[in-house]
Amino acid sequence: MALSTRRYQQAEAGGSVRITDEVYLVGGGVANAFGLSDDPDCHIYLVDGGDELALIDCGMASGNSLERILANVLAEGLNPEKIAQVIVTHYHVDHAGGAAEFRERLGVDVVAPADAADALRTGDERAVALDVAKAAGFYAADYHFEPVEVSQEVREGDRIHVGRLELEVFETPGHCDGHVSLLMRGRERSYLFAGDAVFSGGRVVLQNIHDCSIQKTAESIAKLAELEFDALLPGHAAICLDGGTRHVALANQACRSLFVPKNLVG
Ligand SMILES: [Zn+2]
Prior knowledge:
The chain is 25% helix and 21% strand.
């Protein structure tokens, strides 16, 4: 779909966090510490594979968020028309709620965990725990989760191509079902996009929702603790450019001691 960039330029002046010359943070709410798009968006990463760009998670596209994110991409001298995919780590709305809007506006393919695809396609608010999240006051009562067509379902070991870059899929349920983490070996660094599986300081987000599991969290963290990578890029809070494995090791250590890693929130 051809896009006019004028509309993004009309959005407020863009800004982003250039993590390296192949990974950028282009969105995320103030509650997430960066204030690059509207609350309650998670961290929204952009990977630059040369011919193609992809977003990892897209937030809710509420308010002015989508325009702000595209303005941030432009501000880095990158062309939003080259965004070919939105890759979602899991179906929680602060990560994937805006996927339908991004797909419609940008003509992108939505890539999602196979175990999350049905809920995304149907917009099932109970399946994604939006009903209880609304009741708890996290989201407006009138917020509607827009169903979205999933172009590609991914499972353990699959590889997602973004231009010259390749992201390897690791299934990491626990925070919720249908959650994946993505390992990318870049030019000078390797990156783990961890979604909400594990955070800096070895923290996790365990919530009182139907598909959150301490045991699955521990299994997923043990799996991630086997990986070699430099940067830990989670869906919220601090990001870590080097020594990212240390944070996962902390969480793994807690689980192996039969304790629950500290919660990021609450
Ligand atoms: Zn989540």
